[in-house]
Amino acid sequence: MVTSKTIKVVIVDDHAMLRRGLTVFLESYPDLQLIGEASNGKEGIALCAAKHPDIVLMDLMMPIMDGITATRHIRHDFPDIQVIALTSFGEERLIKSVLEAGAMSYLFKKISADDLAKAIRAAYKGMSTYATEVTEILVRSIRQPESIFKHLTPREHEVLTLMVKGRGNSDISDELFISSATTKSHVSSILSKLGVTNRIEAIVFVLQHNINLETFYIP
What we know:
Elements: E1 7-12, H1 16-27, E2 32-38, H2 41-51, E3 55-58, H3 67-77, E4 82-87, H4 92-101, E5 105-108, H5 113-124, H6 132-141, H7 154-164, H8 169-176, H9 180-194, H10 199-208
Parallel strand pairs: 1-2, 1-3, 3-4, 4-5
Helix pairs in contact: 2-3, 3-4, 7-9, 8-9
């Protein structure tokens, strides 16, 4: 589904050929517009200040300043800009670090053009997208939940599980067969009980506390 507004995108990656390939990809979608490129995190921050993109496609391993540090600065200085981690690396440490820094999504560079376009549009709407391998890595790494999660109802456990999987409210409503208003109510309750202010913070909270997603309901 194409958005009605052109989404402005910036690429931050130290590999020129990768940037060129992403440029060609973006040019094939009328609702996506490349407005700048940077070869390291420091340049990426400056580019965000000058161009004010909607989305940043952020590599993680770069010289001068890495993508995790750059993401943290961008999300702090420009909270309206969403960052998608786009990398070849799937280490648990990197995944958790960049999500904690504020990245909206975590994808691998082998992703198809159509799936990347969908992820960009989803991030623009405030919805996360994770590579399947990322979810598997996180599930394998987690331990038993902290006591604070006992305050969540079974339904809130279900909703939180889907939030961590990157589902938006509409998808959660469809998968759990509940109304949009009910979903919003559950999300608000979850945020309140976890002491966070938004979905990204809730996801990071789950990762920080090593919550065992396998104990949650997964449709």
